[in-house]
Amino acid sequence: GKRFNHETLEVKYKEQSIADVLDMDIQEAQELFKHHPKISQMLKTLHDVGLDYLKLGQSSPTLSGGEAQRIKLARELGKRSTGKTLYLLDEPTTGLHFADVKKLLEVLHGFVDAGNTVVVIEHSLDVIKTADWVIDLGPEGGAGGGEIVCVGTPEEIAACDASYTGRALRSVLAASGGRKPPVPAGESTLKPAKAKTKKSSSPKTSPATVVSSHTLTGTGGSRPPLAADHQIHIRGAAQHNLQSIDLTVPRDQMSIFCGPSGSGKSSLAMDTLYAEGQRRYVESLSAYARQFLGQMPKPRVEHISGLSPAIAIEQKTVGNSPRSTVGTVTEIYDYLRVLFARLGQPYCPICQVPVIRQTTDQIIARILAFPEGTRLYLAAPVEVPVGQSYTKLWDKLGTQGFLRVRINGTTYGIEDVPAIDHKREHLVQVVVDRVKVDAESRGRIADSTEAALNLGKGVIHLIRVEKDTPEEKWPTDRLSLHYSCPKCAEG
Fold it and tell me: What pLDDT does 183 receive?
C-alpha cells in the first residue's frame, strides 16, 4: 500500500496526493513547489549538493554513506548561517561523479565565503588542489603514522618530496593549467614538519610555529593571509596514534587533512577537534541540561584555542529510525504536513462530521433557523478546575447580573445552588438568556448570543426546552467561533 488511509490520499495539492509527492524526485518536487519559498529553499539545497535523483520518500537506511553525508550537508545549508561555525567532513566525495564533486566544492567554498571554517578529511586530489590549506599526515599508516609530514598551500605540498600526497599532487596541478612546482633534487623547499613528542625537551621550533609561518606568509592560497589570533591552535594532540603533535589550522578557510589510511586524519579531525568542540558546548550548558547529556570525555590533547562551535558531517545513517526518509531528515516533510493539513477538510474523530469554524453572524442565523416558537436556553460553558471552590464563581456571576446556572443538566437559581463536590468534574453552563425564536426576538437573540460567546470564550450551547422530556435529556447544540465539531464541540 501507500501507508496512508483513503481519507488522507483524497487531499491533493495540484492534483498530487502526499503519496504522489513522496514518490517524486527532488527535481520534480522543485517544479511542483516553486511558489512555496520554505519548501522550495530546502529542495534547492538538495539540488546544490547533487541529489536531484533522490525521491523524497526514499528510506534513509537505503542511502549510501556519501548520500547520507550530503543530506546532512543540505540540512546545514538550509539553516541560517552564523558565520562562526567549524564544519568537519569525513571524505565527502566518496561515490561521487566528477560533476557532483564540482557541486560539492561550490557548497564547501560557499560555507567559507560566509565566514565559516571547513576542515575536510579527503584523499581526492581534485578536492585537495582547491583547498586554502593542506595538512598532510603520515608518513605511513597505523603505528607508522600520527605525525605531520608537511603543511602549506597545495602548491607547497606538491613541492615536498617527503609527502606521498605532494608527489601525486604535482601532476594534477600541472594538468589543471597551474604552475608545476619544482621537484626537489635533494631537499624540499618546504621542510617537512616533525611532530613534537613528550620526550623532547629541546627548545627547537615546534610544528605549530612552522604552520603559523606558512599561514601568515604563504602565497599559494586563494584567500588573503590571516592574523595570528584568527586560527585554531592545537597543542599536544595524542589521540589514538597521534604522536603528540602541535598544529595551527586557519579559520575562515578550507583546510584538508590528507595522508595514507590510518595516518591519524580522523583521530585529529573527529576525535580531537570535534570531540573537544562538543565537550566545551556541553560544559557551557546549565547543570540541569548537562544531567541529560552526560559527561563528554576529554580527548587526549594538551590545549586547543580558537575553537568555535563544531558540526561533524560524517558518512553515517542520517536517521535513528528505520522509518526516516529523505523528506523527514531534511525537514521538508514538516512543511508538507502543514500544507496538506490546510488543504484538507478535518473531521471530528468522535462524531465523524466535518470540523467547522463559524462567525457570530452565522451562529445567530443558525439560532433564527429553528422553527418559530422554539424555546431555547442560550448558555455559556464555564470550566472550573477540579479542586477549586465554586462559591467564588457563583458570587462573581451574581454580581454580573446572571440569574441562573445549569449544573450537570439541572437548572438552579444563582442564589439557590446546592453544595457541589469540588473534587469531581462538573458540566457548568451559565444561562445567559431564555428566548423564544420569532421575528420580534431577533435583536434580543443577537445581543444574548454575543454575551454568551464572550463568557464562554467563543463557545455557546443552545439548549432546546422540551416540556415532555426530563431536563437532563434536553438536546444541546454546541457552536464555536473556533475550529470545532458542531456536535460535541471538541476542537
Answer: 42
- 144-184 residue pLDDT tens: 888 999 999 999 999 998 899 999 998 888 876 654 444 44
Amino acid identity of 197? T
Whole-number pLDDT of residue 15:
85
Q: Which CATH number fits domain 82-316: 1.10.3470, 3.30.160, 3.40.1130, 3.40.50?
A: 3.40.50
Q: What single letter denotes the amino acid at residue 66?
A: G
pTM of the model: 0.55
Fold (topology level) of 1-63+317-344: ABC transporter ATPase like fold (1.20.1580)
